[in-house]
Amino acid sequence: MDDKAGKEKASNNRGTHLHSRGELGQAIECHEKDLEIAIEIGDRAGEGEVYGNLGNAYLSLGDYRKAIEYHEKHLKIAIEIGDRGGEGGAYGNLGIVYWSLDDCQKATEYHEMHLKIAIEIGDRAGEGTAYGNLGNAFQSLGDYQKAIEYHEKHLKIAIAIGDRGGEARAYHNIGNSYFSIEQFEDAVSNFVSAVDVFNSLRSLLKSEDVWKINFRQQHEETYAALWKSLLMVGKIEEALFAAEQGLAQTLSDNLLIQYKVAPRPSSAAKFDSKKTISLLLTELSTPIIFLTIEGLTINIWFMRREKKIAFRQGRLEADRREKYPIRTLLKTAFQEVYARREDPAFMVDNPLTTFYDAVIGPIVDLLGPEDNELVIISDGELCLTPWTAVINWIRIRTVPSLTSYQLITSVPEGYHKKKGALLVGNPCLNELEKPFSDLLCAQKEVEMIASIFNTRPLTGREATKAEVMRRMSSVGVIHIAGFADKYTGGIVLSPNPGWASRFPMEKDYILKMSDVQATNLRARLVVLSCGSSGQGRILKGEGLVGIARAFLAAGARSVLVTLWAIDDEATMMFMKRFYQHLKEGNTASGALHQSIKSFRESKEYSEMRYWAPFQLIGDDVKIEFEVIDDVDK
After folding, report:
1. Rounded Cα gap, residues 613 and 90, in angstroms
2. Which of 96, 235, 306, 524 has a CA-to-CA distance to 406 between 20 and 30 Å?
3. Residue-wise pLDDT tens digits, 335-373
4. CA–CA dist 381, 281 (Å, integer)
């Protein structure tokens, strides 16, 4: 019995941990196993606790009916066994569900019951939580003064008992209430306090990427609320500092460690975004636009060397009824691009015109005739925009954030001076459970590039995951031509020999983000000539998290990716031109721009689907071909 009780407790903790990481399906499975054990050994208190955890998990999934069902079961058991703390917690959880259902009256009743019990039993943490939940309910009812009163009570208790998470949430909620009554200065003050506490808590997560990303997503609203409030009081530059502070934090933390800018990960929480931007404005050779999304409004900060930051706004024309209107706009544009393949007369105008009008139109007068390049920092779904198709008369690069850009460009000159090129193409995938067809053009592509570099590519069975990982950290250029996962950008390579199962498992042949980040790269340029290598998960605050980001985090200076599936033969020809332009002395962005221009003007490859998906991320680089040689020589 004792052994099972111990297993139940350990499993319950694991389920709660999985929930905190956002892995809800696994968390529910874990809790259901806990429930079986609790019922088997007659642990009524444990059974009630598991019901509560299941209720919270289903609430996170948006299944309110099941959430209420489980929380009511928890409440019933707590009352039966006289567990006053559990009873109060169940009332509080039910209140949260009803608040999520916009039944604020019923939510208030449950939270008041929770508050009463918490005061009776001296549960200060529960009391503070109840005050906070009541504040949220009154905020939803439009009684902002009462909401502020309750949130301030929560804040006072949180500070008294050292509940830093509760303290940050209380500051955020007070800020929300002040924002609602248009007292924006007070809103700013509270959001600043909330961000400071969240950054302090985040620094305790050390180098755990998954935890940091999930933490950042949970509190994205606070970072966004701060820059929105600053805009409302006309503090344009401060709003940019706040928006930058909340963007791609985990990537910047990785770069701080990778480039040994800071002695330990915790210092990343104190990285000064204002100082970062000030440094960039004294060093910039290329204009930058920084974009944030507010509904369909695009906020645009335009930065130029030693000039005052300009602020403009644009608006996307999209259907607001869509859950993800910008993503839908992009999807529609891609469909139009590919529809022309079937019917050349289908598309006359550029389907991405609305993005030009909303983003480039408002700042086009700020671009002078001397400007031949633009760096774009995008928020949310805008990360998936094929900017080279939106604005095709200027060279385009993207970077995840100003901080990551400043870190990459300030690396000591010798850091990215590795010699050698790793060229990988057409890996052998016929031994997989679901075999892939050969990519003969990919093989020709890397063989053609190998002739330029005077080296030998890895192809077929030689292109194993293990061999690619072994060589990656010792070269200056990495080029991979093959298949990539359309959701994460994970790259499919030849399986490592000696797998134990009937077929190779993913760990044997998929080059994942975690694999890349485990390496220590010195590559100046990484080219991922694989369909959808520029894809990934769009995460609030962190941006686009995929394989390209992993290469940057591991130390690559510049990464060329594709945003969607690419034509094999066209890509082979595109890469031939790209490397020829590189060899002529062009920078990566210049070589990309020239290759796109020649495709647009050609008879065979003028359609957007051939050239628009290519996107350069990171710094602009030149390749010194005379020092490139076979890494094995």
Report:
1. 51
2. 235
3. 888 776 555 555 457 889 999 999 999 999 999 889 999
4. 27
List the beta bridge partners of residue 396.
374
Asked if 413 and 389 touch (Cβ cutoff 8 Å), the reply is no
| pTM to 2 decimal places | 0.89
Nearest CA among 609, 582, 210 for reference residue 388: 609
Give me the long-range contacts of 262-271 (CB less than 8 A, separation at least 24): 265/203, 265/206, 265/207, 266/203, 266/204, 266/206, 267/203, 268/203, 269/199, 269/200, 269/202, 269/203, 270/199, 270/203, 271/403
- How far are the Cα atoms of 75, 289, 348, 603 from residue 343, in angstroms, in the given order? 62, 36, 11, 16
* One-letter amino acid for residue 597 of the chain: K
CA gap 170, 191 in Å, rounded: 10
- Six-digit token pair at 210? 């998954």
Place of tokens 């200060």: 124
Question: What is the per-residue pLDDT across 484-539, written as a single tens digit (0 to 9) for each?
Answer: 887 777 899 999 998 888 899 999 999 999 999 999 999 999 999 998 888 888 87
- Is the CB of residue 420 less than 8 Å from the CB of residue 458? no
Q: What is the DSSP letter of 416?
A: G
Query: Counting beta carbons within 10 angstroms of the beta carbon of residue 180, is it exposed (0 to 12), middle (13 to 18) or buried (19 or more)?
Result: middle
What is the torsion angle, in degrees rounded to the nearest 10, for the CA atoms of residue 94, residue 100, residue 104 and residue 107? 10
The tokens describing 67, both together, are 């959430």
In the block, tokens 């608006």 appear at 315
